[in-house]
């Protein structure tokens, strides 16, 4: 007997995970999105030398990508009708990232209608925080249901 299709919030979370996987930019990164609960998202990345700057550690673009995505999906887990846009993002680098697994954890902080605030942090393979960031996000005019990657997953 096949499993029951996800419904409500769970269906929304799985559809956001599918949207993340379908985004062309994510073909450049070895990463997966997991949304275990409303207002929380976790992204598992694998950093390798392709993402290094000249001094042999991950370039800041990788940090931004991971932090922004985790915060963004934490907030979009609360918004079921519209795709959100990042309007500002601040980040703090605390240690260099080398090759290996990295986890980005995003959490909704505040906002429920127009502007949302979320924070995120990067945890390296040793369990140490490598960076943290805070962003603001707002609803776009783009309906989630209109995006080909946003689909119900059974």
Automatic annotation (TrEMBL):
<dbReference type="Pfam" id="PF03061">
    <property type="entry name" value="4HBT"/>
</dbReference>
<dbReference type="GO" id="GO:0016289">
    <property type="term" value="F:acyl-CoA hydrolase activity"/>
</dbReference>
<feature type="domain" description="Thioesterase">
    <location>
        <begin position="56"/>
        <end position="130"/>
    </location>
</feature>
<keyword id="KW-0378">Hydrolase</keyword>
<dbReference type="InterPro" id="IPR003736">
    <property type="entry name" value="PAAI_dom"/>
</dbReference>
<dbReference type="InterPro" id="IPR006683">
    <property type="entry name" value="Thioestr_dom"/>
</dbReference>
<protein>
    <submittedName>
        <fullName>PaaI family thioesterase</fullName>
    </submittedName>
</protein>
<dbReference type="InterPro" id="IPR029069">
    <property type="entry name" value="HotDog_dom_sf"/>
</dbReference>
């Amino acid at each position: 007997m096949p499993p029951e299709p996800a419904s409500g919030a769970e269906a929304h979370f799985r559809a956001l995970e599918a949207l993340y996987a379908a985004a062309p930019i994510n073909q450049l990164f070895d990463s997966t999105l997991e949304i275990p609960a409303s207002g929380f998202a976790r992204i598992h990345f694998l950093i390798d030398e392709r993402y290094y700057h000249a001094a042999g550690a991950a370039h800041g673009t990788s940090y931004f990508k991971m932090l922004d995505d985790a915060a963004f999906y934490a907030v979009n887990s609360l918004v079921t009708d519209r795709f959100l846009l990042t309007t500002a993002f601040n980040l703090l680098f605390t240690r260099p990232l080398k090759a290996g697994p990295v986890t980005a954890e995003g959490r909704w902080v505040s906002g429920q209608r127009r502007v949302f605030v979320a924070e995120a942090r990067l945890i390296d393979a040793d369990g140490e925080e490598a960076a943290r960031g805070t962003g603001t996000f707002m609803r776009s005019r783009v309906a989630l249901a209109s995006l080909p990657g946003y689909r119900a997953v059974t």
